[in-house]
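Repro:
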Amino acid sequence: MPRIALVTCRPGPQVSVDRDLPVLVRALEEAGARASAEVWDDDGVDWGSFDLALIRSTWDYSWRADEFTAWAEECGKLTRLANPAAVVRWNTDKRYLGDLAAAGVPTVPTRYTAPGEVPDLPDDHEYVVKPTTGAGARFAARYTPDEHATALRQVERMHAEGLTAMVQPYVRGIDTAGERALQFFGGNLLHVSRKGPVLAPGTPYDQRKVAHPGLTGWTPTLVDTALARKALASVPGAPELLYARVDIVDGEDGQPRVMELELVEPNLFLWLHPESEPRVVEEILKAAAR
């Protein structure tokens, strides 16, 4: 009887509720496993007693990224961690988009501004400013060229907290074609969801956003699927990934680009795709048995 920890975080006013967590715990128990939800920073958890620690909804990590990656490295020494600690360290910093672009993966163009540097803000199109370490659109906002002063204040606030800022053009294709989330599990495409724009004009960067507005099931194009697979094949070191989510949008040329590659704690949206639950359980049990 495998012991499986579904790793989550403590509830809080800025933390979303993982609707899938209790469902997944119950489904694994019904399949013969001993499954439990465990908080990643709970010092009382004996991670070595589990056959698998599956990171699920550690959605407070962006406030404590260094602490979280240190936990992942220690946990990975005690048990099988999915995804592996090296993936966690790479993927929790969105500068990974530069690695993907260098590998030939079409991505949303991105510039980075570390603390102490002055940002180069666009003067001819809408753009988005957000931190390289963040989740749920935390500290993200959309600006027009005449809002530079407000954007600079946001960058200064992030720099004061030790965060690196990233600047991207606002991808207008989100307003029409939406953002497509291709979810993989056990190396195979599990299901696809589509959501609308998260960042409304004028929304303050420090206001909480709805992370997945207008979420629906979706049928992917062959082009989207091929791009997602190319992105996954470009992860440094070709690690074994139990799960992955590739978020794709259409660029100004109408061609798909990777917006984000979620390899740490992507929402699975099983509540929207209940037909995927048996496959997820099967793959988790396989991983625990290795």
